[in-house]
Amino acid sequence: MIPVSVITGFLGSGKTTLLARLLRDPAMSRTAVIINEFGAIGLDHELIETSDESFVRLSNGCLCCNVRSDLVLTLGDLAARRAAGTVPQFERVVVETTGLADPAPILHALMTDRDLCEIYTLDGVVATVDAVTGLATLERHAESLRQAAFADRIVLTKTDLPGAQTAAISARLATVNPGAPVLAVVSGAIAPSALFDCGLYNAAGKHPDVHTWLAHEAAAAAGGHARHRHQDDITTFCVVRDAPLRAVTLALLLSALAENCGADLLRMKGIVRVTEEPDRPAVIHGVQHVYHAPVWLARWPSDDRRTRMVFTGCNIRESWVRGLLDLLDAEVEDETAQRAAGLAAS
Q: Class assignment of domain 235-345?
């Protein structure tokens, strides 16, 4: 049987950072990674591997699959490819869920689908929780609460950032899931042995609501109801630009988003082509009012060198973001031209 571990956690809580760090460990070789992204354009797979193929081999021998379709079908197809020898003989599967995922449908499918159960076994659930914004997120978004409640291990991220509420959120998580250890990490640094090989998933000992949610999921599945849900007021869109951005334009954009959007912008991430460094893309991340300095990659992860920024939130209009970016572009261009004219005149 092939163990399947699920990494879940709300938007911006550090799932991709954790997974990217784990995949550097030799113990994670021969692992298949399934990344389930929300929205029309996904970026997480590009931040982990080096191609935008549907199935690719990672540098350490792992396999990565980027999917936005049914997880059951994806796992079945992955097993068929393994049996046919068209993908490496992986020995473990890690599923990174979308940040808006309710874990119940995923776990129910892995525990009850007859075909999957002949090949895979649910090994455990890891949930990431943001130490800076996690308390408010747990109260505001039911998905975040469920993700933590289902977990066998809870990874508390961003504990090194200003505003981290490590003690308070640890106490809150103890009421949500008293049986799960809370493991504080910085930049996703943790050994795979601390998270995986939990043994066959067992809801016993978890909050009583977990049993209720799984029972409701079983009833919904039996009735043929849709099993993929998220809040209807949460929307996502992607801004794609062929022309590069100046570094100062990017800095002004991040500052304006942090100042004007607040908690409504649940997650922003992007890969940006910057005028001053066209061969080295900048990776940007923002969660509510917290925005990190861009991280520069050594090279582009694929042949697609366009700027792509994905926004997920409530009451955030795509037209407003595009208009803001155009305005900043024009202001920076005008200032640059004036400065150049002044230098020429002198």
A: alpha beta
Cβ atoms of residues 326 and 291 within 8 Å: no
Angle at 130 between CA 267 and CA 310, to 5 degrees: 15
Task: Please give the Cα distance from 116 to 111 (Å, whole number).
Answer: 8
- E-only strand ranges, the chain: 2-9, 31-36, 55-57, 63-67, 92-96, 120-130, 153-157, 182-184, 235-241, 265-274, 277-287, 290-291, 295-296, 307-313
In whole angstroms, what is the distance from residue 207 CA to residue 189 CA? 28
pLDDT of residue 48 exceeding 80, the answer is no
Query: What pTM did the predictor assign?
Result: 0.73
Can you tell me whether residue 178 is helix, strand or coil? coil
According to CATH, the superfamily of the domain at 2-222 is P-loop containing nucleotide triphosphate hydrolases (3.40.50.300)
pLDDT digits (tens, 9 = 90+) for 242-263: 999 999 999 999 888 888 887 7
- Nearest-CA neighbor of 151 among 26, 283, 5, 16? 5
Q: Which residue has the tokens 């029309």?
A: 40
Q: How many residues does the chain have?
A: 346
Distant-in-sequence contacts of 213-218, Cβ < 8 A, 24+ apart: 213/102, 213/104, 213/146, 213/150, 214/104, 214/107, 214/108, 216/104, 217/104, 217/105, 217/107, 217/108, 218/108, 218/112
Domain residues of the chain, as ranges? 2-222, 235-345
DSSP 121: E
Copy the structure tokens of residue 5: 């571990």
* pLDDT single digits (tens) 320-330: 999 999 999 88
